[in-house]
Amino acid sequence: MKRPTMRAVEPEPRLTGGRSRGIPGLIALMTVTVMVATTAGCSAPASSSEARVADPTPAPAPDPARTADLDAAQAMAAAFADHDVGAAAQYLAPDAELWDGWIRHWERDSAWSVEVAMEPCVEMTPTSWATEFTCPFAMHLMGSREVGAGPFLGNALTVRVADGKVLSAHRKMPSDTNGLAEHLDSVYAWLEANHPADVAFLGTDELAVAEDRWPGWLELWTQYLAEYIAATGES
Predict the structure, then answer these.
(1) In degrees rounded to 5, what are phi and psi of residue 50?
(2) What phi and psi, each to the nearest 5 degrees, are found at residue 138?
(3) Whole-angstrom distance, CA of residue 138 vs CA of residue 157
(4) Burial of 152 per CB tally in 10 Å (0-12, 13-18, 19+)
(5) What phi and psi, each to the nearest 5 degrees, are found at residue 204?
(6) Rounded Cα distance, 113 and 222, in Å
(7) How far apart, in whole angstroms, are the C-alpha atoms of residue 103 and residue 107?
(8) Higher per-residue pLDDT: 44 or 145
(9) How far apart are alpha carbons 206 and 41 in whole angstroms?
């Protein structure tokens, strides 16, 4: 990108004496000399027109490619926060690489009442083929807000983008250090005490649940979390 140049300062106006001949010209010159001598030590205030300030350097025009990449990263982060698979699909490159089972995870997050508060995505050091963004977020889930736990901090969605399309997206959640693991333990302890027959099924990894049982898995989680909040939530 060509760096914009500052407009040159216009030169100050120069005063030029008129050309005179004979006595009138000599008298005029003597008059000027006397006036200068009698006003020595006094200086007239500078005219504002004599010191013109150059216009500020204009801001560089935004790079359309970088703007498109940032927009794609922000859109991916918004879709992640809303568990909106359809919205995310609009920005995915044909061979995009997301974490395994991301669609089921987003469906699970909806059943778990996951609330994601995204911060603006920040551009990291770009490579020759893509730009990486990190999108920090805080979260609540499984009634944590209602029972006085969370929010769980220190999470981030990392999105790699090229030509306005998402090439990859991965999330990082330090559950062992931000209080999330403790909250999950409390939810499972309540399930074991109140719905012991379903604990094994609900504890099954999302990707291991058979397709025909997946809707029931989601429904049970939604139902039991509502009961958990009603039984343990803060009044």
Answers:
(1) -85, -15
(2) -110, 160
(3) 11
(4) buried
(5) -65, 140
(6) 8
(7) 6
(8) 145
(9) 90
Question: Structure pTM?
Answer: 0.70
Query: Which pair of tokens denotes residue 189?
Result: 């302890």
Residue entry with tokens 């918004």? 78
SS (H, E, C) the chain: CCCCCCCCCCCCCCCCCCCCCHHHHHHHHHHHHHHHHHCCCCCCCCCHHHCCCCCCCCCCCCCHHHHHHHHHHHHHHHHHHHCCHHHHHCCEEEEEEECCCHHHHHHHHHHCCCEEEECCCEECCCCCCCEEEEEEEEEECCCHHHHCCCCEEEEEEEEEEECCEEEEEEEECCCCCCCHHHHHHHHHHHHHHHCHHHHHHHCCCHHHCCHHHHHHHHHHHHHHHHHHHHHHCCC
> How much is the pLDDT for 163?
94
Pairing of strands 92-98, 165-172: parallel
Nearest partner of 80 among 152, 172, 157, 163, judged by Cα: 157
Structural domains in the chain plus CATH codes: 64-232 (3.10.450.50)
Tens-place pLDDT, residues 28-66:
333 333 343 344 444 444 444 444 555 666 666 667 888
- For residue 212, the one-letter residue type is D
